[in-house]
């Protein structure tokens, strides 16, 4: 794997592990949803995104943010309510905004909003797109279909990145979804692409995405990318009702368990140490002021 | 000319002026394009004049408010038409959880200039799902403004001001007002005059000059104002009871200062609204008046709301549920000493 990609995979992994550790020590107020096992999705996708593309993230959005901004301190400060927080400590884990990157905590809500930004981009900033991360469980929401319908009707540059991890909180996909995501996309005449993001590498999924994403930018209409991925951790903190043998299998198949060698060990130690330093830095900071960090507040699009 | 303008024409002109003034303003809704021009014809002609800005959407209330929210995030502004106010329930999440919260939940002020127009109220025989007054469900949401048009307020000024605030807003428009005439500046009818007072968007004060204090202060949103005027005339002519009517255009954070002096001096204060009782604009305003004027009021502020039931379709049944001019008149007579 390209060392930069592996670094980012490991940064997200160690960030999420550190967060669970902070939780266990009672240092996190509220809740958080880690993306353990799903790191490859944003790491594969983010280099294909333009800084002025809109990105809509969700409740499980730490990886999306880190892969785009490489800002573990701002994110941890937000989650812990400390100075320098991305959203001033108001938003918390699920409500981050940095320029055109936003996350919200209501399932499906982002899709119509993303379509609205895509309408703007198609008319005023052609070549840019709106990317929205959703899970397989999000497909239970009606707003998803209202948005897909309009995006297809108006050929909007909307990229729907589905992180299909097979489980929505505690409900297996099979108990919540009739038919398939591919079938649902097909019903709207929307292109659907299945990408395997369960392996350790990200270049294969990224290469598979490059052409289709470029077509979205050029006006081909919306694209649904269904990433096969695994949720190796709990829904939020300790709430994972899956049987022990299934969890064992998930951990054995997890990308982190499948990599080794001196280069991996070196980068693994490097990112573990980086996150540990961030934790030391942020936990020593004064409380958040309620105002977004200065560098976040001053963000401007490159050209509007 | 303008003096004889119907409220529907006035709204149409106000929307046209707003679209002409800002090419980043979008107008979205169902069936709003020509030749149909909207279920109540408020948008007639606008898609022909502004084809890029006027966007007809599928029957997807949550979706189309979401589109408006996205346009706003990207630096545009949007006015959305709900075909009937009842359907705004389908967009509650986009309005309350996305538009309103986005203004502040990211730790910085994010402008969300999105206006949702809601044709509201009954008296058209459309039945229970097309006649409700849902204003109360949107009150008390941080960074969500709630307005109601009246025959006295200038809607062009209202839309300009609301969009300029950068806070999402609902604008309720009583459907019966559409076909009524807009009042020329200063003249409510042949008997009563009116002035707009207080902070923007102003409270219309309808009265006969020189009568102070009035026997009764009536406070109503724009949709009830016509019925209140009918009641005021009847009370004056038949009972010699004088009323002063206050019509604020803003329902959340209704300005108290224009109302307080008269309310403190009047024989009674009656607040009238169209929806059902329970957690309402009128109840909240009554509480504020009691708090502000405790010890000065002649008696308790009274609230008139619709009966506790759905709005029936049949005219005679609907009349029993909704507030009528006669309801207002009878309430004032009962409180007159």
UniProtKB/TrEMBL annotation, chain A:
InterPro entries: DH_E1 (IPR001017), PDH_E1_Alpha_Subunit (IPR050642), THDP-binding (IPR029061). Residues 8-254 form the Dehydrogenase E1 component domain. Its cofactor is thiamine diphosphate. PANTHER family: PYRUVATE DEHYDROGENASE ALPHA SUBUNIT (PTHR11516:SF2), PYRUVATE DEHYDROGENASE E1 COMPONENT, ALPHA SUBUNIT BACTERIAL AND ORGANELLAR (PTHR11516). Keywords: Oxidoreductase, Thiamine pyrophosphate. This is Thiamine pyrophosphate-dependent dehydrogenase E1 component subunit alpha. It comes from Cryptosporangium japonicum.
From TrEMBL, chain B:
This is Pyruvate dehydrogenase E1 component subunit beta. Keywords: Oxidoreductase, Pyruvate, Thiamine pyrophosphate. It catalyses: N(6)-[(R)-lipoyl]-L-lysyl-[protein] + pyruvate + H(+) = N(6)-[(R)-S(8)-acetyldihydrolipoyl]-L-lysyl-[protein] + CO2. Its EC number is 1.2.4.1. The pyruvate dehydrogenase complex catalyzes the overall conversion of pyruvate to acetyl-CoA and CO2. InterPro entries: PDHB_mito-type, THDP-binding, Transketo_C/PFOR_II, Transketolase-like_Pyr-bd, Transketolase_C. PANTHER family: DEHYDROGENASE RELATED (PTHR11624), PYRUVATE DEHYDROGENASE E1 COMPONENT SUBUNIT BETA, MITOCHONDRIAL (PTHR11624:SF96). Residues 5-180 form the Transketolase-like pyrimidine-binding domain. The keyword Protein biosynthesis does not apply. It comes from the Bacteria. Pfam families: Transket_pyr, Transketolase_C. It is an enzyme of class 1 (oxidoreductase). The keyword Oxidoreductase applies. Its cofactor is thiamine diphosphate.
């Amino acid at each position: 794997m390209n060392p930069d990609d592996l670094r980012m995979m490991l940064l997200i992994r160690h960030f999420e592990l550190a967060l669970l550790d902070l939780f266990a020590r009672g240092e996190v107020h509220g809740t958080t949803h880690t993306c353990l096992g799903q790191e490859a999705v944003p790491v594969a996708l983010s280099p294909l995104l333009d800084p002025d593309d809109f990105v809509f993230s969700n409740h499980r959005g730490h990886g999306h943010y880190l892969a785009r901004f490489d800002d573990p301190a701002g994110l941890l400060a937000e989650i812990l309510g400390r100075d320098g927080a991305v959203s001033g400590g108001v938003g918390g884990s699920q409500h981050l905004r940095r320029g055109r990157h936003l996350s919200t905590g209501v399932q499906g809500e982002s899709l119509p909003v993303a379509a609205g930004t895509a309408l703007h981009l198609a008319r005023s900033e052609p070549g840019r797109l709106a990317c929205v991360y959703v899970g397989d469980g999000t497909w239970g929401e009606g707003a998803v279909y209202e948005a897909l319908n309009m995006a297809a009707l108006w050929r909007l540059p909307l990229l729907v990145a589905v992180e299909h991890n097979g489980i929505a909180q505690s409900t297996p996909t099979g108990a919540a979804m009739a038919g398939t995501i591919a079938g649902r996309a097909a019903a709207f005449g929307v292109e659907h692409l299945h990408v395997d993001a369960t392996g350790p590498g990200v270049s294969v999924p990224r290469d598979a995405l490059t052409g289709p994403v470029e077509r979205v930018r050029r006006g081909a209409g919306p694209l649904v990318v269904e990433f096969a991925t695994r949720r190796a951790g709990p829904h939020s903190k300790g709430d994972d009702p899956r049987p022990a043998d299934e969890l064992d299998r998930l951990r054995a198949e997890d990308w982190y368990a499948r990599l080794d060698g001196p280069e991996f060990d070196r980068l693994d130690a490097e990112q573990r140490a980086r996150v540990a330093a961030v934790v030391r830095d942020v936990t020593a900071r004064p409380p958040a002021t309620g105002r977004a960090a200065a560098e976040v507040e001053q963000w401007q699009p490159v050209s509007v | 000319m303008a003096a004889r303008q119907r409220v529907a024409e006035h709204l149409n002109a106000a929307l046209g002026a707003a679209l002409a003034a800002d090419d980043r303003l979008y107008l979205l809704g169902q069936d709003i394009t020509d030749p149909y021009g909207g279920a109540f014809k408020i948008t007639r002609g606008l898609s022909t004049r502004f084809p890029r800005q006027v966007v007809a959407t599928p029957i997807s209330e949550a979706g189309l408010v979401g589109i408006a929210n996205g346009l706003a995030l990207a630096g545009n502004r949007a006015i959305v038409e709900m075909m009937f106010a009842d359907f705004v329930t389908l967009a509650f999440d986009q309005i309350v959880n996305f538009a309103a919260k986005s203004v502040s939940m990211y730790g910085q002020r994010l402008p969300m200039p999105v206006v949702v127009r809601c044709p509201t109220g009954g008296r058209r025989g459309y039945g229970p799902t097309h006649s409700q007054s849902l204003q109360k469900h949107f009150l008390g949401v941080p960074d969500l403004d709630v307005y109601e048009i009246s025959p006295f307020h200038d809607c062009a000024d209202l839309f300009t001001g609301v969009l300029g605030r950068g806070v999402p807003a609902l604008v309720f428009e009583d459907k019966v007002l559409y076909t009524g005439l807009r009042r020329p500046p200063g003249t409510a009818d042949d008997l009563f005059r009116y002035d707009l007072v207080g902070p923007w968007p102003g409270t219309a004060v309808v009265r006969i000059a020189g009568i102070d204090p009035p026997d009764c202060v009536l406070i109503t949103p724009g949709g009830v104002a016509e019925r209140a005027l009918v009641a005021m005339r009847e009370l004056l002519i038949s009972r010699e009871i004088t009323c002063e009517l206050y019509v604020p255009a803003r329902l959340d954070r209704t300005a108290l200062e224009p109302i307080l002096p008269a309310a403190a001096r009047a024989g009674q204060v009656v607040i009238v609204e169209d929806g059902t009782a329970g957690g309402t604009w009128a109840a909240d305003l009554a509480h504020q008046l009691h708090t502000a004027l405790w010890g000065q009021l002649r008696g308790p502020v009274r609230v008139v709301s619709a009966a506790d039931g759905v709005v029936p379709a049949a005219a005679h049944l609907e009349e029993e549920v909704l507030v009528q001019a006669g309801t207002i008149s009878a309430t004032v007579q009962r409180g007159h000493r």
